[in-house]
Amino acid sequence: MRFIPATAALLIILAGTAGAIDKITYPTRIGAVVFPHKKHQDALGECRGCHEKGPGRIDGFDKVMAHGKGCKGCHEEMKIGPVRCGDCHKGGSTH
Ligand code: HEC
Ligand code: HEC
Ligand code: HEC
Asked: Is 95 annotated as a binding residue?
């Protein structure tokens, strides 16, 4: 059975390389945040700016990072993308 997780991991890496990660949803208690990942790939062109250690889930990604350079900080810096609470946290719904 050991080769199965490795195969799954490889498929995830290949999917990422192909830019197949479309959207990632963070269900938070003040409303779900939908991160349009593919749109960011297309707008920013490269992975390294966000993925220092290569594509995949980011170690320690949390609220502090999201409100800093992980999401909001970049929007502030580039003067594009949502910076207000309700523009990321939608409708108080977590579905
Ligand atoms: C604007 C920043 C940004 C850019 C640019 C970006 N990513 Fe991501 N990516 C993220 C964030 C944030 C996550 C989710 C991190 C987390 O929650 O742990 C993520 C997650 C991923 C995942 C894991 C998805 C999952 O659900 O397991 C893969 C694979 C990935 N990115 C690949 C890429 C590749 C390949 C590129 C370049 C073509 C890229 N990313 C560009 C920010 C970015
Ligand atoms: C650019 C998008 C963005 C903006 C703007 C933003 N947030 Fe967030 N916030 C997130 C993301 C993404 C997470 C989830 C991080 C994680 O769980 O890894 C989050 C998490 C949270 C959490 C944690 C909720 C939980 O269930 O643990 C709270 C509370 C929160 N944000 C409040 C706020 C408030 C208040 C504002 C406005 C002052 C705000 N956020 C603005 C993206 C944003
Ligand atoms: C390195 C810079 C950078 C980071 C990090 C980043 N963004 Fe963005 N974001 C952008 C840019 C640039 C745009 C404008 C893209 C466009 O209009 O094509 C944008 C646009 C958006 C939009 C609006 C998309 C639309 O359809 O208009 C949302 C929502 C968003 N970002 C959420 C997030 C969340 C959530 C995170 C963190 C998980 C995040 N972003 C991280 C640069 C960034």
From this structure: no
Atom of ligand 2 nearest to the CA of 62: 18
C-beta of 37 in contact with ligand 2 (< 6 A): no
Asked whether residue 16 carries a pLDDT value surpassing 50, the answer given is no
Residue 78 covered by a domain: yes
- Tokens at 42, concatenated: 């297309």
Q: Is position 84 within any domain?
A: yes
Confidence (pTM): 0.89
**Domain assignment of residue 37, yes or no:** yes
Compute the distance between CA of residue 47 and CA of residue 61 in angstroms, rounded to an integer. Answer: 16
Q: Is the CB of 24 under 6 A from ligand 2?
A: no
